[in-house]
Amino acid sequence: MKKKFLGALCLSLALALTVPLAACGGGGDDLNEDGTWWSTTGELNKDANGDIVFDDVSLRMSTIVSGVDKTPFGDIIAQFNAQYRGKININVIYLQGDNFEKDVTMKVQQNANNAPDIVMLHQESLKGFLDYKVIQPYDLAMEETGVEIDLTAFAQGVNQYAQAGTEYQYGVPFDAAGMVVYYNKDLLKETTGSDKVPQTRSELLSVCKQFKDKNSGNYPISWEMSGDFFCQYLMPTAVLQNGGYLYKEDLYADWYNNETQRGIYKNAIQSVRSYIDSGYAKKGVHEMAGATDFMQNKSIFYVTMPWYRENIVSGYATMNQITVAEAEAKISGTSVSGWFAMENETSENAKKIFGDSHMFAMTKTVKDINKKAAVCEFVKWFTQNADVGAQWAEAGHVTLSNTIATSTTYTENKNVVNFINNWYPHLDSFTTMGITPYYSTVSENLKTLLSESLLLDSPTESAYLELIKTKQNALNSRIDMFKM
């Protein structure tokens, strides 16, 4: 291969395609003389005042959203299409995560009739799409079209990756989501005599002990360890909160070889495991079992994903034979911030939460300047419209747009007040996978490192260290194969 690229994408393409698209890291067969792979054609349609006139511009979007937030996203797109009827229309294709990169790359590289114009992707996919020359710079398109949006007006914790290490901005980040905590306000007050939500690991352990002393048969924390998101998001969060890093470019993974990181990774595993070993959380809880315990008032805290809010609130109402409004008054949100920091509980690292961020990107197939303007217009609408931000928050996604985040429409939304702001109290400490073409390989080994450690009965320190060493070597071997 000529250079590093998205390992999972390249492997899936190699297995799935009978006709290769281009050399790995490729897409370089259509380069312009200046080395670029995008171009602009045509002239903008403008009225007498110099404003752009959109005349039934049709855009295709491929999105990674395909779960419970698919419907609310579709509703938002329908609003855009209604508002811009006769001007711009967006047709959305919803793709499953396992096929997303492969499908988008194949269609764009082959310049297929159904190739997307806009891609709604996870931040970590940006580097792979760039290496494959699937996307083009958004900031240059803005300059050409005159559609203005401040690309710096987004939370820096994620926006720092929007250029993917280049001089151009290839992605526009607009939301974030990671593991969150729902809590029962009545149970918390009954347990501690206070409404104060624990802010550090020590405070949380104190609450858990008080609850366990009064409710020996129940667990203060409910979670679903069998869920894919549990280990995928909590292991990186635990590493970051203990001051570690997920990878580095020169060696990539030195989770075991580096003495400091070895201790950090051991602490990260033990920090999650300690809640189980102390009797504060169940081991091996199956899907929805944790939610049921929470709805039956058997636990104070429920750790899960943010887009289940509506189901949790309505389920709690049904199970306790109360109204949804009454259930909403009893349930609020808090953060996993600080839950896993074994030392330095008040440090900046302790605040970190690992998760995903969605970005919009424009594919290289968009050449007509009027279509480029339409893409820019849509992204501007989505990232600056407070009503849109509030609706997307209802689906569990915190906005990264400073414009939306400071609007009263957003800040006074009850879901933002009760949940979103509490789930992500330190938004610039929200951490994604960053700029790496090997994100899926890193993620998989981090996830299995935690999941396999949780399966151990009465594990010793040496057992933890052996797992860390095994996963480090597996990750580096995989990356070495991709680099060949």
Polypeptide structure, described:
The relative contact order is 0.17. The chain contains 20 helices and 14 strands. Strands 1, 2, 3, 4, 5 and 12 form a 6-stranded mixed sheet that branches. Strands 13-6-11-14 form a 4-stranded mixed sheet. The chain has a 4-stranded mixed sheet with strand order 8-9-7-10. 45% of the residues lie in helices and 12% in strands. It is globular, with a radius of gyration of 23 Å. The protein is an alpha/beta fold.
What's the short story on this structure?
By secondary structure, the protein is α/β, with parallel strands linked by helices. The protein has 20 helices and 14 strands.
Spell out the blueprint of helices and strands.
Elements: H1 7-16, E1 57-63, H2 70-83, E2 88-94, H3 97-109, E3 118-122, H4 126-131, E4 135-136, H5 138-145, H6 156-159, E5 172-173, E6 175-178, E7 180-184, H7 185-192, H8 201-214, E8 221-223, H9 228-241, H10 259-277, H11 289-295, E9 301-304, H12 309-319, H13 324-330, E10 331-334, E11 353-356, E12 358-363, H14 369-384, H15 386-394, E13 398-399, H16 402-405, H17 408-411, H18 414-423, E14 430-431, H19 439-454, H20 461-483
Parallel strand pairs: 1-2, 1-3, 8-9, 11-14
Antiparallel strand pairs: 3-12, 4-12, 5-12, 6-11, 6-13, 7-9, 7-10
